Amino acid sequence: MNALSKDAVNWLAVGEDGQGQRVDNYLVRILKGVPKSHVYRILRSGEVRVNRRRVAPDTRLNVGDQLRIPPIRASSPAHRSASEPHAPVAVPPILFEDDALIALDKPAGLAVHGGSGIAFGVIERLRRARPEAPFLELVHRLDRNTSGVLLIAKRRPALVGLHSQLRDGAIDKRYFVLVRGKWRDELRAVELALTTYVTSEGERRVRVDSGGRRARTVFRRLDVWPSAVPPVSLLDAELDTGRTHQIRIHLTHLGFPLAGDDKYGDFAWNKELARQGLKRMFLHAHRIAFAHPVTSAEVVIEAPLPADLSAFIARLGAAHRGQSDAVDR
Fold this sequence. Notes:
The chain contains 7 helices and 16 strands.
């Protein structure tokens, strides 16, 4: 924002760092200190133009595009959100890094990016910690209350290559999930189409809908505690598609709500789980495998089960010693 005029229209030529990026995300990145709500307002009003044409927020940019940005004054430091840190910030543990990629072990409770009242997510923390980095972009997303492996691209070709693999279903993503009920199948593929809707309160939700988008999850049974009240099961969930809330919706629809799920789960059970020490959703992205976008070598990255989830599993095992030992991850 420092290089842009605050009193006149700015015209910017999109460089390699903007190739293929959505115009809303590009503006949020370059307009430091400008609220997201204002960015979307100037997009809706037509004040932002690409090659002199009005554009939608999801318009993709190309190298050489001429981007019109109206005069914008960034918020002064005194008016910044209290949730945006000014001192050096902590970045989640790094599981893997090379010249093209970073893999982080995201904790539960930390959003991957700012928005919806959150000023400073994982990607903003990383950019603050590495101001010299010319390019840092999220490859994919995890819900705020989901922990585990999160990929960040350090180069545009890496981002484009991994997005291509995601579209083709070539990236193997696995999650640990704890559910209510006795899961009987060792291996079960679930294919139920999903659609997104908005509640009367304005909250986005997802439901099973035969007319929706294809969604397929493969579940593998890891452990079952049938004598627990209620019985519970630990599963490995493999995403063949990456729809919003896919795992949670598929499990609830099958009658196996995810432990701690405050949107689609068993709310009475969640309260009991909280009394037992499980105070968040049991959903952990423990493994991701893909072809390196530069070298094509196979890359497998794993994130250990966080201490709070591991401790809860250990307590289950101790309380029900007659059953098989809990998986130690």
